[in-house]
Amino acid sequence: MTVVRRPGSFFVCGLDAAVDVVGGKWKPMILWALDAEGVLRFGELRRHIDGVSEKVLIQQLRELESDGIVRREVYREVPPRVEYSLTELGQKLNAALVPLGRWGHDHMDVIVANKEKKEKAAESAAAPVAGKRTTV
Question: How many alpha carbons fall within 13 Å on the CB side of residue 8?
Answer without folding.
Answer: 6
